Every structure is written in C-alpha cells, then in structure tokens.
C-alpha cells in the first residue's frame, strides 16, 4: 500500500511528494510544524496541537494555509488514505514560495502546507519504555524563541546526533547550568521526595502537548509538580528522570552522561505516568 502525503492541495504518493526550491521553509527555515500522536485512529489532543500551530503562525506573522475545520479534514483524510490506526502525523506550514529575499514577500503568497503520516508502533514504544534510555547533556545553543515550533532545528539536530553517536536516546540541553529541555522532548526529574520537576513554559522551551497532559495525569495521581528549572547536579541526584514527547509519550531516563539515575532502571513514577497517559489518551481521544 503506497504512503500518501498531502502537499499544497493534493494527495500524492509519498515518494513523489515535492515542494518548490524557493519555498521559504527550504531556504530560510521560515516555517512551523506539528507532530501529532494518533492512537486507535483518533488524534490525541488535537485541540492542543491546533492551538499551538495557530500560536506559532501568529508569532511569526504567517497566514494560516486554511481554516481550522478544513485542516482537520485534511488531517483525517491523510490518516484514512494511509490506513493507519496508530500513527504520528507531521504537519508543516511555510510562508510559501517567493524569489529568495530575506524580508517577507510584499506580494500576498499562499502558505505551503504539507501533511504526512507514518505508522506508530505502540508495542515497540512500550518495550523501549520498559528498557529506558540514556541521555547526554549538551550546551543549549538555540535562539531565544524556541517556544515557537519552527522548522529551524539545526542545533537540535546536532545535539541529537551527538547523543546518537554515543548510544544515547536524547540530548538534554543546558543553559546557565540548568536543563531547559531535550533536543526533541521535554525533560523531567523526580526528586528524592517524589516531586516532579520540569522547566517552566516561556521562551526557553517548547511547551509540549505531552508535557501539558503529563501535568494533568500527575495531578490525578496526586503527584506534586514543580515547574522550575533544575540543574544538572539535581538531575544526577534525582531518584528518577524521564522525557516526554508525542513520539515517545513518557520515556524513562536511566543514565545521564553515563551516570545512573536512581537505581539506573526505569522508575516507578515514570512508568505510572506513562500508563496513566495512555489510559487518558484512550479515554479522551
Ligand atoms: N521540545 C522540543 C524541542 C520538541 O521538539 C518536542 C517535540 N516536538 C517537544 C519538546 C515535545 O513536544 P510534544 O509533547 O508536543 O511532542
């Protein structure tokens, strides 16, 4: 069955999906994106993703490619045409195609919209969570507005590659001695009193949809959450650590820079949150 992508008004075989060489996303990273988790054929927290997409567009003074209702139709159609039940759907909006020049084009141009989907293997993700993964720390060299979900991800790419090259699953980014977030996930620790700690929202992190929902799950489980920056030393002394993202849900972190976190195995709080998160997604999807 061929994979189908949506590209600027057309559903095309994925292998033929193309954008123009003067797309501003390609030339200037002048674009934004979303990655949505689909479980059992249903988008999880679609409202959260669409609100974040609209916020990113607004922050960059970019037009929406279509109304929210039409975008939902396209997203459902991509899922249906790919016959997917559990999936990750990628959506990208760029300012559009114009002769290369830094300022916004003076002519009104159509924003470009691409939507693709890939299968999400929930069992493989569960198996990985049972194993946990290690992270390394890297300097956070990103720009000052990483709360906008732009496709300008080169520092994230370099950090993730550094992690991969030593067999780690993620790089935790450190600014002024504090962990901001991962290269493509939010970072969490559990202190020795069982309190969850994660960097507050603001310009220094991307407000993860998973992060938001994990906070709700924690409240339901009566686990205390502190939204404040934590240092790498605190992370080393934590009883547990984990990361969150649409693609990982909740993934326990068992080592930081080669040193075990807590018992060096996936922690009970992270695993409980993961189960609660999946249950909530099934209930609300
Ligand atoms: N931070 C960064 C830098 C990310 O790229 C992501 C994933 N897109 C996240 C956090 C997690 O966000 P979400 O939970 O919405 O996937």
What is the CATH architecture descriptor of the largest domain?
Alpha-Beta Barrel
Tell me the strand percentage band: 25-35%
Multimeric state: single chain
User: Which kinds of small molecule does this entry bind, naming each only once?
Assistant: 4'-deoxy-4'-aminopyridoxal-5'-phosphate
Q: H/E order of the elements? A: EEHEEHHEEHEHEEEEHEEHEEEH
What is the name of the CATH superfamily of the largest domain?
Answer: D-amino Acid Aminotransferase, subunit A, domain 2
The CATH class of the largest domain is identified as Alpha Beta
Mean pLDDT: 97
Annotation field: number of helices: 8
The total count of strands amounts to 16
**Poorly predicted sequence stretches spanning 5 or more consecutive residues:** none
Main beta sheet strand tally, sense and closure: 10 strands, mixed
Percent helix, as a range, is 25-40%
Count the domains: 2
Distance between the termini: 26 Å
Overall structural class, as computed from helix and strand content, comes to: alpha+beta
CATH topology of the largest domain: D-amino Acid Aminotransferase, Chain A, domain 2
Radius of gyration: 19 Å
């Amino acid at each position: 069955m061929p994979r189908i992508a949506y590209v600027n008004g057309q559903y095309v075989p994925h292998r033929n999906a193309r954008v123009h060489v003067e797309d501003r996303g390609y030339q200037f990273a002048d674009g934004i994106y979303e990655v949505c988790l689909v479980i059992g054929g249903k988008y999880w927290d679609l409202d959260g993703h669409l609100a974040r997409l609209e916020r990113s567009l607004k922050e960059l003074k970019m037009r929406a490619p279509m109304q929210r209702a039409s975008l939902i139709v396209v997203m459902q159609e991509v899922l249906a045409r790919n016959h997917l039940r559990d999936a990750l759907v990628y959506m990208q909006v760029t300012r559009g195609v114009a002769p290369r020049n830094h300022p916004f084009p003076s002519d009104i141009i159509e924003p470009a919209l691409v939507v693709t989907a890939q299968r999400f293997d929930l069992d493989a993700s569960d198996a990985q969570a049972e194993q946990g993964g290690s992270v390394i720390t890297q300097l956070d060299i990103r720009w000052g507005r990483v709360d906008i979900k732009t496709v300008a991800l080169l520092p994230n790419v370099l950090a993730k590659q550094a992690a991969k090259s030593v067999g780690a699953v993620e790089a935790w980014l450190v600014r002024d001695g504090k962990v901001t977030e991962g290269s493509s996930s939010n970072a969490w620790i559990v202190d020795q009193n069982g309190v969850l700690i994660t960097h507050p929202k603001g310009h220094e992190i991307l407000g993860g949809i998973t992060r938001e929902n994990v906070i709700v799950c924690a409240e339901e489980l009566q686990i205390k959450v502190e939204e404040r920056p934590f240092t790498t030393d605190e992370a080393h002394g934590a009883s547990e650590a984990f990361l969150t993202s649409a693609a990982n849900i909740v993934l326990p972190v068992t080592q930081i820079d080669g040193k075990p976190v807590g018992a060096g195995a996936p922690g009970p709080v992270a695993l409980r949150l993961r189960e609660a998160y999946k249950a909530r997604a099934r209930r609300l999807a």
